[in-house]
Write a structure and sequence with these properties.
mainly alpha, single chain, 4 domains, Serine Threonine Protein Phosphatase 5, Tetratricopeptide repeat
Length: 399
């Protein structure tokens, strides 16, 4: 145990590294005398036996329980993990161990955050935020800056999701402030992975905020944040994170194209989704591959309104056909119907430009496939829309 310089002689205060322990004892003994030294040593022994050792055993037992709960949380066994955290808060003296208490509250918050995905969304998100805020009473910016930043990032994520339910603009602004504070702590140089996660989250918050005000400004800020995340989430080092960030860029660019520089933003969205497909291949990630191909098809439909309609409609059709390699009616009926509907629409538009008889027939066939799922009983609105398009295609095919 490191001793205070005030308790030793001048010789002790100038001690060189590696000096034998007996020399230190001798120095203290010459200053205090044998009886006083014995009393000090006895006091240390008694403290260890009756206070420190039992406290250490309690702390070790708490740590073991906490680690077990954390393992369950990592395995997405949320209810069991939360049960242990709550039982520890009721029965164990966790308040006497601030670091354990803070970690417990932070992870309790994450349990509520995860539970909000499946039930009682607003209540669970509020509980998550309260638990995170309780953890931040120990994980302060001054004493534990990195832990503070990690928990504050979670607060931002919970606020972003809470904005989907109520007080959208208020909660998104609070989330953005939280992420910005995180980024002042977890910089690119010190904690690159945490930095990238916060930038990704910040980008998402700006995309959501763009629905309520200053759309062009906020979408520009979102794209900038995603670009910062890509400094860390590179294709070579973090391919899956790279794909997620590129997907987010593509989605933001689609929104951007609705309000400014339509052609440029659609091109950039296509570019981003093609980067996603470098990772989400048909063989490795078939469902994500199909979703991305469906999105690419929609982008080419939009581009057909801007330039080269025949070429872009052909590319849209190819993308939808690639999506249907995975989106079969047996396994994914709703996704199958959505893609077949879009495929029919692409053929219908193409029929106005080239090979009308053939393309109208292909459009009708795709609509008929969509209607095997989109029945009047289950999906009346989608059924009527599909029937209307199909009747139009049939009428034009015989004109």
């Amino acid at each position: 145990m490191k001793k205070s310089r005030k308790s030793g002689s001048k010789g002790y205060s100038r001690k060189q590294p590696g000096r034998p322990l007996s020399g230190i004892k001798g120095s203290i003994a010459r200053t205090l005398g044998g009886g006083a030294l014995a009393a000090i040593i006895a006091g240390i022994v008694l403290f260890y036996l009756f206070e420190y050792a039992p406290m250490r055993k309690v702390e070790e037992a708490l740590r073991l329980r906490l680690d077990n709960a954390n393992t369950l949380l990592s395995g997405k066994i949320i209810d069991q993990a939360l049960g242990i955290y709550q039982d520890m808060l009721r029965t164990d003296p966790v308040g006497e161990y601030p670091k354990i208490y803070a970690e417990l509250k932070a992870n309790e918050g994450t349990c509520y955050f995860e539970l909000a995905e499946v039930s009682d969304k607003e209540d669970n998100l509020n509980l998550a935020i309260r638990a995170y805020e309780e953890a931040l009473k120990t994980y302060t910016a001054e004493k534990s800056p990195h832990d503070f930043a990690l928990v504050l990032n979670n607060v931002g994520a919970a606020l972003t999701r809470l904005a989907e339910i109520r007080d959208a603009e208020l909660n998104l602004n609070l989330a953005i402030k939280a992420y910005e504070k995180v980024l002042r702590m977890d910089t690119f140089e010190k904690y690159p992975l945490s930095y990238a996660v916060a930038q990704d989250n910040l980008g998402g918050a700006y995309v959501s905020l763009a629905r309520f005000r200053e759309a062009e400004v906020n979408l520009g800020l979102s794209v900038k944040a995603y670009g910062e995340a890509l400094k860390v989430h590179t294709l070579e080092q973090y391919p899956l994170k790279y794909a997620i960030t590129q997907h987010n860029i593509g989605a933001a660019r689609i929104r951007f194209a609705e309000i400014a520089d339509r052609e440029m933003n659609l091109d950039l969205a296509v570019k981003a989704y093609k980067e996603v497909l470098r990772i989400h291949t048909l063989e490795q990630y078939p469902l994500k591959y199909a979703t991305t191909q469906h999105n690419v098809g929609a982008l080419y439909l939009y581009l057909a309104d801007v330039r080269d309609p025949e070429e872009n409609l052909g590319l849209a059709i190819k993308a939808y056909e690639d999506a249907l390699k995975i989106r079969t009616v047996e396994k994914y009926p709703i996704d199958y119907a959505n893609t077949q509907y879009n495929l029919g629409y692409a053929y219908q538009l193409l029929a106005e430009i080239a090979n009308p008889e053939q393309n109208f027939d292909l459009a009708i066939k795709a609509y008929e496939e969509a209607l095997t799922v989109l029945t009047l009983e289950k999906y009346p609105r989608e059924y009527r829309t599909t029937m209307s398009n199909m009747e139009t295609a049939r009428r034009k095919s015989i004109e």
